[in-house]
Amino acid sequence: MYLILVNPKAGNQRYRRIEKSFTNLLNKLDIKHQLVMVDDLANIEDILKDHAKTQLTAVVAVGGNGTVNTVIDALADYRNLPLAIVPISKTNHLASILGAKDWKTGLKILAQHEKKQLRLGKIGEKYFAGSLVVSPKRTLIANFFERKSLLRSFVGTNTRATPKEEHHVACTIKLDDALTVKCQLHTMAIYFQDEFGKKMKIYLTTYSGKVPEESIFRADQIEIESSLNMPIISGNEPVAHTPVKIQAIAKTIPVLAAPSKSPLKKTK
C-alpha cells in the first residue's frame, strides 16, 4: 500500500482542482493507497509514526519542492521506505530527475517503476537531495533556471552569462577545512552524484572588480558566511539562509523512478 501525503496548499491549491481526476487515475491504475491531507508540513513526521506498523510500498509526496524536502527529511532517519514524487508545481526538479514530469506521470510511476538510490546531503541538521542554488537576490533564482551556460552540463540547469549590473555579495567560503575562498559572490550551485563517496561539485560565479569569473570546486563540506543573508534554494523553495554548513554524506534514500528500459504505458 502507498501512503500518499498531499499538500493541498501546493501550486496555488492546484490539488483541489484536479482531485477528481487524481483519484480516478489512482483507481484506474489499481493502486492500493491511503491518502492523507497534510495541512501543516510540520505534521509529516507524526503521520509517518502513525503508520509505523503499516506495510507500506512507498511514501508518496504530492506537492512542490517544499513538500518533497520535508518528506525526505522525515524519511531519511525514520526507516528505509522508498520515496515517490507526484509533482503539483511545474518546477519540481527532483520529480523531473525521476521522470515524473507532471502529476499523471507521477501516478503512473507508482504502477510501473524501478527503484533507484538518491544521494542525500545535509544543510545544518536537515537532509536534502538534488542540487542547491545560492544567490544574493531571490529574483535571480527565478532567472537562474532559464539561463544558458556551461552549468547545463553540470547540474542540468539552463543558465546565461551574468550581466555586469546584477548583484553580488561579499562571502567567505570554507571547503573541507582545507581551503578558504573570499569573494564577491553572484551565484553558487551545489550538486552531487547519486553514488556514495562522491564529493559535491560547487560552481561559483564571482566578481573581481567588474569582471565575472567562473570556478568549479569539489568538497565534502562547505561553510558559507556572507555580509548579507542569502537564501539556499532547492528547486524554487528556500530551505535555509547563510551562514550555513552544507555536507555531502554517505547515505542515500530509495526512490521510485520511471522505468529506463520500457516506457510508461499511456493512460487516456
Question: What does this entry look like structurally?
Answer:
There is one protein chain. The chain has helices at residues 10-28, 44-50, 65-76, 93-97, 103-111, 138-144, 152-155; strands spanning 2-6, 33-37, 58-63, 83-87, 114-123, 126-129, 132-134, 169-175, 179-191, 200-208, 211-219, 221-226, 231-234, 237-241, 244-257. With 268 residues, the chain is of the alpha+beta class. The protein folds into 2 domains: 2-120 and 252-267, Probable inorganic polyphosphate/atp-NAD kinase, domain 1 (Rossmann fold, 3-Layer(aba) Sandwich), CATH 3.40.50; 131-251, Tumour Suppressor Smad4 (Sandwich). The strands form 2 sheets. Strands 5, 6, 7, 8, 9, 10, 11, 12, 13, 14 and 15 form an 11-stranded antiparallel beta sheet that branches. The chain has a 4-stranded parallel beta sheet with strand order 2-1-3-4, with helices on both faces. Strand 13 and strand 14 (237-241) form a beta hairpin. It starts with a strand and ends in an 11-residue tail after the last strand.
Which tags fit this structure?
Tumour Suppressor Smad4, Rossmann fold, 268 residues, 39% strand
How are the SSEs placed, and which strands pair?
Elements lengths: L1 E5 L3 H19 L4 E5 L6 H7 L7 E6 L1 H12 L6 E5 L5 H5 L5 H9 L2 E10 L2 E4 L2 E3 L3 H7 L7 H4 L13 E7 L3 E13 L8 E9 L2 E9 L1 E6 L4 E4 L2 E5 L2 E14 L11
Shape: elongated
Content of β-strand: 35-45%
Q: Architecture of the largest domain, CATH level 2?
A: 3-Layer(aba) Sandwich
CA radius of gyration is 19 Å
| Domain tally | 2
CATH topology name of the largest domain, in short, is: Rossmann fold
How many DSSP E strands? 15
Supply the helix-strand structural class. Answer: alpha+beta
Mean pLDDT: 84
What is the H/E string?
Answer: EHEHEHEHHEEEHHEEEEEEEE
Helix share, percent: 10-25%
CATH class of the largest domain: Alpha Beta
Ends distance: 24 Å
CATH superfamily of the largest domain: Probable inorganic polyphosphate/atp-NAD kinase, domain 1
Identify low-pLDDT runs: 138-165
Q: Largest sheet, if any?
A: 11 strands, antiparallel
> Total number of helical segments?
7
